Amino acid sequence: MRIDQLEALLMVSRSPSLSAASEQLHISVQTLSSSIKSLENELNLTLLERSSKGVIMTKEGLEVVQATQHFLEDMYKIRFKNENPQLMVFNNPLKLYVHAKMYELFVPRIICELKKNLPSIAISTYKLTVRELDDKLKTHQAPFALTFQMVLDGKTDTPDDFDFYPLFECKFVGIAQNNFPLTSINTISIKKLLKYPIIIYEDENKSDALYRLLHHFGKPSNLIVEKDFLLYREMLNSGLGIGFSIMTPLENYTRSLTESINKILLNDPLQLYGGYLMVKNTILSEEDDIFLRYIKNYLIRHAKSYPVYLF
After folding, report:
1. At CA 69, angle to CA 65 and CA 75, rounded to 5?
2. Residues in a beta bridge with 165
3. SS3 letters for 37-83?
4. Which of these, 293, 280, 291, 275, lies nearest to 95 by C-alpha position?
5. Cα-atom radius of gyration of the chain, to the nearest Å?
6. pLDDT digits over 288-308, tens only?
7. Residue 111 and residue 246 in one domain
């Protein structure tokens, strides 16, 4: 049994398919399937149920995933502890360029963990829009950027001279008040949602990604753009329309909505990944390389498996 096999199983438990998991692991589906099969043979357990529709975790598989997460968490803590002396010789501060939305997901927690282990470490964080991040990368002011990548109908909007490395998969969901007409269903397409009043919260970063996504599927019958989050939340609570959110395998530190809000999974052919973006052939500094490995360490320790019903 190898650690890479356990990491592969953990990734499969968080992905909708072997194909999606293999993309995030940067290996072929055949290699991933062979790795899981070898692990099953060694444990004498069936970890995945395979069918023409894909794979799902078995009860034994979920138990192994839970044990694996605890094991890998301890292993990565030991590995990071051994890397501390290497981190202590940093000559330059870490500069993090991150999409403002991704910053809310886990970056503050990582910074606090690093400062707790390394009180003398200096970290500067720059929360930027997608366009600003692209400019920083193209002008070589940033070696990498933490951001999102959308895959729609198998195509991405990542420029050809960039490489994107996924770290986790997100899921688009519609959010609406309990009494809203759609909340009795579990999934829906964006095209069908366009018939209902849609409310978009536009923060100070003015990202138009969601606006463009909606118009890819058609013209909304009634689109409301609200800049005040408290008013946006109250409009959803009052059943005036349906909003959108992102589910991730990470703890979410954003401002929460009330318990009367339900989530509806979008079943369109689109995926959203969180990861880091680099200009092709960029050579990372020692500090940047170790920080990215620490992020992967953090995800192993904190990311949760999606519930089976989401697939």
Report:
1. 140
2. 276
3. HHHHHHHCCCCEEEECCEEEECHHHHHHHHHHHHHHHHHHHHHHHHH
4. 291
5. 21
6. 887 888 888 787 777 765 544
7. no
Does the residue 307 lie in any domain? no
Separation CA 53–CA 295 (nearest Å) = 32
Residue-wise pLDDT tens digits, 122-172: 889 999 988 899 999 999 999 999 998 888 777 787 888 899 888 888 878
Residue 173 CB coordination number (10 Å): 19
* Cβ–Cβ under 8 Å, residues 240 and 112: no
In terms of domains, do 140 and 276 share one? yes
Among candidate residues 172, 126, 125, 124, the one with its CA nearest the CA of residue 148 = 172
CA separation for the pair 158, 156 (Å, rounded): 6
User: Do 146 and 25 belong to one domain?
Assistant: no
- Which domain CATH number covers 220? 3.40.190.10
Question: HSE on the CB side for 290, CA within 13 Å?
Answer: 20
**Whole-structure pTM value:** 0.69
Amino acid letter at 131? R
CATH number at residue 23: 1.10.10.10
Helix (H) or strand (E) holding 174: strand 162-177
Q: Which of these, 263, 268, 250, lies nearest to 305 by C-alpha position?
A: 250
Tokens of 182: 């759609």
- Percent of residues, the chain, with pLDDT higher than 70: 84
β-strand pairing of 197-201 with 222-226: parallel
DSSP one-letter code for 227: -
**In the beta sheet, which residues pair with residue 168?**
274
Residue 178 domain boundaries: 168-270
